[in-house]
Task: structure prediction
Amino acid sequence: MKMSNMRMRYGQTLLELGEEDPRIVVLEADLGKSTQTFGFKSRFPERYFEMGIAEADMTAFAAGLSLTGKVAFTNSFAVFALGRSYDPIRQDIAYPCLNVKIVGSSAGLSDYGDGSSHQSIDDLALARVLPNMTVLVPGDGEEAARMTRWAAKHDGPVYLRICRNDVPSVIPEDAGVLEPIVVREGSDAAVLSAGIMTARALQAAETLEKEGLQVRVIHVPCLKPLSDEAVRNAVAGVRAIVTAEEHSVIGGLSQAAAWALRGDGRPLEAVAVQDVFGQSAQNAEVLLEHYGLTAEAICRKIRFLL
Result:
């Protein structure tokens, strides 16, 4: 299976945007190598701001730059990009609806070696609760590139969630950015998945097909805005629904889907991190297995519901 890297494609696209639009500026919190923005620094040093390990200051500075007409991209690990910067994001960017793009790298459990302090299993909840914020969760590298371009053109705050590791390329290249995408048809059950879990949902659908079950896989690239109608239309006609995300079961896709499907009556289950922190591991796959974020976990949920 073809693999891709979200960080690399994000960095490449950011450099392309810098060539095309002189308004693009990039801010970094001493993690340029990890977030793939050093190429921008080399090409456009006058539009690159190394802010040091001071994420809140970086975020407030980006708000100021946006008021001068710049399109500002802030970059850090997801857990710091949102967690350490939450007050200026809320007060200085979301509330006045400024044109700042917050890019959280090494999201979810993908920073396996640094443990719970660096693993963002709550970032989507923090971003979704903010009025005016668009929340994008790419499933592979090419989708991350498309979302970067979309964010640069969108007038308003955006949170873009980037995985650290190589991932399977599974999202159609002609897919849109905002609406749920059916990446596999099926009539028995549906999986609403976000980010890296879409690849695992497709694996689960292949396994269950051998057991006589047809599973529809719906990739949800944008968690906010996410219309109730779009979710309902995507899962129309199936008997059971499962959500799958590399995030806490609280505040992410599972709760967004449950709200959209309120009163529906069909059984709904979630594959997500439960109400716990992450931990260190030898690789990301060990963590995903430990927290039940696997194709087999999706299969078990669907079998249980059907």
Summary: The CA atoms of residues 92 and 225 lie 20 Å apart. The mean pLDDT is 96. The chain has two domains: 3-168, 181-300. The radius of gyration is 19 Å.
